[in-house]
Design the sequence.
């Protein structure tokens, strides 16, 4: 995937995971799984009436400086071009050339991003856990979208090889190559070695934050001890192999039920490990 480095840096700097197609919209409360390297929505906990009403925030502006990201990108030319149009006024464009040092190097800019947040996660968490793992479904690996962000004006350019070159122009008088990239008028005049060049064209870019269902620390310790202490039946090599498996695979049929399920599961924030699964 050509956008791996962009995904990593976006998450590390902003704390938000980009939609794999940046224009793909997500909603707070969506239940998702990662399949074949893609985050696939399955249902929405609000629409499915799995919990009481979701409490959502109003739109909150995000810190603008976090949304100017680049790696190995260098602006080597910026020049203004003024053309007289039929009415006699001046039409001002800025032409720029960006060169990239290596494959997957990129430049990204999102102007004035805003977010909406789920405000009552703690209130709905336990009820949701029971319904997703026992009462309505039997999920063991699932994500819940808890916040969404979007930006109406944005641009992303990703190099497909070392030495890639992007020649572009925007109908704005500005030498800031981030702003030139995200302006709605931005257009590619010539590309060499580029993997992708995307601009908003009126479609917002979307980003998410999410919680992931995991085995609780108490249960993880329990199954870890079971493997480590089972040296009579398992060789050292087999013990090492079991330690690399998913502990959910060790649950016996009579161990997980309505009474015990709350002790089995926990929720954690999406991490860089999850982002890596989306860029595999």
Sequence:
């Amino acid at each position: 995937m050509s956008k791996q480095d962009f995904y990593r840096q976006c998450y590390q700097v902003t704390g938000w995971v980009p939609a794999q197609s940046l224009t793909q919209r997500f909603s707070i409360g969506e239940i998702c799984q990662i399949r074949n390297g893609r985050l696939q929505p399955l249902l929405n906990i609000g629409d499915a009436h799995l919990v009481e009403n979701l409490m959502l925030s109003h739109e909150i502006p995000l810190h603008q400086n976090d949304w100017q990201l680049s790696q190995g990108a260098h602006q080597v030319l910026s020049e203004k071009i003024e053309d007289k149009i039929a009415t006699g006024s001046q039409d001002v464009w800025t032409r720029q050339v960006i060169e990239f040092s290596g494959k997957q190097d990129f430049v990204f800019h999102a102007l004035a991003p805003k977010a909406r947040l789920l405000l009552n996660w703690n209130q709905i968490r336990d009820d949701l856990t029971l319904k997703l793992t026992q009462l309505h479904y039997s999920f063991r690996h699932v994500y819940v979208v808890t916040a969404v962000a979007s930006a109406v004006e944005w641009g992303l350019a990703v190099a497909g090889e070392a030495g890639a070159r992007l020649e572009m122009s925007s109908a704005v008088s500005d030498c800031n190559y981030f702003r030139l990239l995200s302006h709605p008028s931005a257009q590619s005049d010539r590309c060499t070695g580029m993997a992708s060049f995307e601009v908003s064209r009126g479609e917002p870019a979307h980003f998410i934050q999410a919680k992931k269902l995991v085995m609780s620390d108490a249960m993880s310790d329990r199954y870890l001890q079971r493997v480590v202490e089972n040296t009579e039946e398992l060789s050292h090599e087999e013990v090492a192999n079991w330690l690399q498996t998913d502990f959910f695979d060790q649950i016996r049929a009579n161990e997980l039920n309505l009474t015990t399920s709350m002790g089995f599961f926990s929720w954690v924030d999406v991490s860089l490990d999850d982002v890596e699964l989306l860029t595999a």
Notes: The longest strand covers residues 73-84. DSSP finds seven helices and 16 strands in the chain.
